[in-house]
Design the sequence.
């Protein structure tokens, strides 16, 4: 007897413990779902609202049925008006999913129950709405107020220019294209016979190399780069100005040559005097130290490079001008 009582107590304890581990279920009292339409009778083409309404607690979420284009074969979705949410008492939410619907065929249509899904935590449930009925009527025609008449004859109107263009615009475009191509061919033939260029573009006179170089040096001087700790940029711009000037003035490919190659090119010619050669060496050498050895020149050395650049351009400009004058004088003496 005592053993049976002990066994019964054990079963009761297991049943009580199992209730604590059962998943929490939905309380159907907290969930409601319904569907309605503004009117159950419409004329073909009229638009009415379909509203799906769900009432849930604050801990629950809801998924409305996906409705894309049609509800039935003859009832169409005009527009999805979205979801309106109303917060009620006791933490409840009332969600209204609205659609604008219409139909273009007369008849009686049945909307099957809509299915909605609820979720609270890991628990899911669903609910169904009631069936809806929609009756669509055609537009009534009152034959007593409108007499049936014979078909009227066509009214002949004069043929306007606008109608002519609309009817024959393909031929008009073709004719215009043929005329334009003919004029273009005649123009090209004349230019070819006269051996003239087809289009004469205005040629902008090229600035002298020393004008461009002096303007760039003045800009570098005004920017005060080395004073702003932009020493590498300062010397790179100085050497670039000189290399461009050397290419334009002496036809030496300075932009593609190293410092030694540039100096060697001048050493093999009589284009520079000793002073100009040394000035150029100072500028290019300091720039190489800054670029490759990451040297930090003294302020006086930075300033000297700019002054030497002005000197180099002024001095070589004067020498070239004198050489041109000498060549012109020699030509005059020969004649």
Sequence:
């Amino acid at each position: 007897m005592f053993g049976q009582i002990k066994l019964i107590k054990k079963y009761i304890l297991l049943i009580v413990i199992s209730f604590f581990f059962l998943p929490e279920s939905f309380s159907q009292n907290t969930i409601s779902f319904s569907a309605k339409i503004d009117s159950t009778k419409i004329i073909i083409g009229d638009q009415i609202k379909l509203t799906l309404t769900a009432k849930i607690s604050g801990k629950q979420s809801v998924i409305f049925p996906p409705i894309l284009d049609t509800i039935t074969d003859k009832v169409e979705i005009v527009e999805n008006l979205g979801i309106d949410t109303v917060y009620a008492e006791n933490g409840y939410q009332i969600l209204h999913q609205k659609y604008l619907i219409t139909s273009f065929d007369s008849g009686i249509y049945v909307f099957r129950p809509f299915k909605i899904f609820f979720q609270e935590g890991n628990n899911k449930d669903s609910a169904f709405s009631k069936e809806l009925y929609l009756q669509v009527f055609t537009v009534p025609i009152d034959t007593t107020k409108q007499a049936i008449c014979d078909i009227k004859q066509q009214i002949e109107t004069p043929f306007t220019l606008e109608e002519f263009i609309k009817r024959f615009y393909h031929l008009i475009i073709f004719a215009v294209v043929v005329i334009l191509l003919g004029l273009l061919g005649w123009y090209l033939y004349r230019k070819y016979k006269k051996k003239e260029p087809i289009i004469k573009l205005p040629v902008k006179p090229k600035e002298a190399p020393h004008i461009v170089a002096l303007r760039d040096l003045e800009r570098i001087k005004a920017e005060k780069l080395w004073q702003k700790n932009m020493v590498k940029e300062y010397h790179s711009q100085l050497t670039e100005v000189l290399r461009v000037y050397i290419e334009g003035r002496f036809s030496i490919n300075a932009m593609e040559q190293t410092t030694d190659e540039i100096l060697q090119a001048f050493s093999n010619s009589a284009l520079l005097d000793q002073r100009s050669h040394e000035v150029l060496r100072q500028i290019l050498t300091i720039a190489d130290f800054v670029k490759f050895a990451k040297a930090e020149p003294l302020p006086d050395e930075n300033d000297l490079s700019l002054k030497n650049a002005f000197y180099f351009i002024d001095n070589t400009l004067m020498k070239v001008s004198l050489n041109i004058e000498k060549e012109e004088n020699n030509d005059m003496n020969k004649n």
About this structure: The mean pLDDT is 81. Residues 209-324 form one domain.
